[in-house]
Backbone:
């Protein structure tokens, strides 16, 4: 299972910062941002291999299920 920041969203934000820096902004002047999008991913294949059973209500809450 993984619960954390949306990686695609983080890459977009990094591109935004690189663009600002390349246009002359000082990195120290740019604000620090915290992620706003989070995702919950379950890997059923790995869970089966280690003998875990994921309850259906947990599977229903997942953003993505890897089978």
Residues:
């Amino acid at each position: 299972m993984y619960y954390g920041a949306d990686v695609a969203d983080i890459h977009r934000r990094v591109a935004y910062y690189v663009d600002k820096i390349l246009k002359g902004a000082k990195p120290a002047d740019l604000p620090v941002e915290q992620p706003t999008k989070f995702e919950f991913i379950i890997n059923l294949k790995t869970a089966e291999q280690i003998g875990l059973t994921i309850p259906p209500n947990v599977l229903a809450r997942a953003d993505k299920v890897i089978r």
Summary: The two ends are 12 Å apart (CA to CA).
